[in-house]
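Board notes (copied after class):
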Amino acid sequence: MKSRENLVRLKQFQVNEKRRQLLQLDMMIAEFERMANELDVQIAAEEKKAGISDVNHFAYPTFAKAARQRRDNLLNSQADLAQQREIAETALAEAELELSKAEMLETRDAKARDGDGGRAMTG
């Protein structure tokens, strides 16, 4: 049946799309982590240069404050992306299950077509 083949192709496309989205989220999470680590290094260097590591100190470097804020924003965004990743993993699992079901139906239909053709000739 052509419609089953089309259904399998559609489900395969959906699975591939979900995998692509998951990969994209992984790349963004890794990039945010890299950027946050770079900011940590810059913060530490600025604090060392100023000799002040107390954020509440009146002479705490302005650049270090701004870098801390950017780093915190990146970490919050990274946590949000991690939640989105969990949702995407669930969606991928569901799409893979639907693909599996569609493939089984298509296989069953193919076997039925092959089997029916043989019975019609002998009967």
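Comment from the instructor: The chain has one domain: 2-122. Residues 110 and 116 are 10 Å apart (CA to CA).
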